[in-house]
Amino acid sequence: MNTHHSSLIPHPSLLSILIPVYNERAYLTRCLERVLEAPLPEGMEREVVLVDDASTDGTTDLVRELAARHAPVVRAVFQERNQGKGAAIARAVGEMRGQYAIFQDADLEYDPSDYGMLLQPILEGHADVVYGSRFVPRTMRRVLNYHHELGNRLLTTLSNIFSGLNLTDMETCYKAFRADILRTIPIRSKRFGIEPEITAKVAKRRCAVYEVPISYHGRGYAEGKKIGWKDGVSALATILRYWILDDCYEERYGHSILSDLSRARQFNEWMAREIVPHLGRRILEVGAGIGNLSRHLPKRELLLLTDVEDQYLSLLADAWRGNALVDVAKFDLTSDADAAALRDRNVDTVVCLNVLEHIKDDAAALGRLRSMLGPGGRLVLLVPQHRWLFCAYDRELGHFRRYDRAGLRSLVESQGFRVTRLKGFNALAILGWWFNGRVLGRTKIGRVQLKLFDLCVPLMRLVEKVLPLPGISLICVAETAGEGSSSKSHVSS
Fold this sequence. Notes:
Blueprint: E1 14-21, H1 28-37, E2 45-52, H2 59-69, E3 74-78, H3 85-95, E4 100-103, H4 115-123, E5 129-133, H5 146-163, E6 175-178, H6 179-183, H7 194-204, E7 209-213, H8 229-244, H9 256-262, H10 265-275, E8 282-286, E9 302-307, H11 310-319, E10 326-330, H12 336-341, E11 349-353, H13 362-371, E12 378-384, H14 392-397, H15 405-413, E13 417-425, H16 429-439, H17 447-455, H18 457-466, E14 473-480, E15 490-491
Helix pairs in contact: 5-7, 5-8, 7-8
């Protein structure tokens, strides 16, 4: 994949090794030595982020000493109070700088010489996330406590049932990630629930997950092992919690409501199905954000993903790296210069969903989109409908307006388009939007409410096929004049 915004691409060869530390004075020095000596793929550099979780055995001073000795490769971060492994990992994720990341425990159970094997599926472009399995056969393994292994396998089986994955070792502490994926996953679990939580979230985001065999030299409780049966019960609760809740994206990677809507996977797929029949071979998406819709759009000759926010462009560039059919470019819909810079991409379709209502001068914005399309080019819009529904939700989202059918048609056609289709979309959401936004004055969609909404998508699709209901949104398909444009016009509710 090429990019017109190359300055945003993260360091192409830096591995962030994230090490949560709590009372590991006996093992930490040797562990860090192995981490620093571990072979990495050619040209790759490393950084180590140590997070001391308010240790009480002198580990805190040791962490400070090791960070000073190995600076700048090793950096130390200190929690003010003990919060647990999950909280320490979340802190490390916020501090990391690399394009790739690996979780590393601070003891000697996991062997850093396996880094190359963990990274290989990601570097080859096959995987987003790689699990290092303790249960995939290798030439040598340490014999462990049977009941502990049985508990791990039971939790893995339950996780697989609810996530749909077929992992052999969900609870492994050796996990490697593309950093752009890891940065956008909210980590809520404070303790060891981080393993089933992350597994549920990468599954729901449909990440490409691989497993590789690793060496494992497990400790007993006498040697300092900290996880116990209570953590197993907590893991089961975590599996169930994130099967129900689609808490898959950090809010800082999207406006809170838009971030919530990104968790509605069935809704996003439904929206994509509605517009795909109207798309050509060279498609430009306006306001791609974190790519929730992008992954459902066809990749024919060109899919050009654009946004105005640098953080989104960086995420998109990493997500589609290596895909020759997908490109990423900065595009501000209020900028004539940005529109002019993209005209040579020769797109035949512009997709602009839930964007136009954010632009103060929407007529000028449509004019810029028109200037990017040749004869027979197509515009696919989705905008909020019904002015009487304008409420706290709209204000929180930064909407300037909601549209009506006649007004949208007039606006689009005033900019040199001919509307060929107007269709209402998502009718059953009107009641919920009105009640929550206008009656209750809420500004945020609750996650349980959103989950119920997403579960109702198959019913909503069926109802809208049978009944011509007025949708909460309007889908507008319009064409430019010239060869290739259709002579038919279709209007529905």
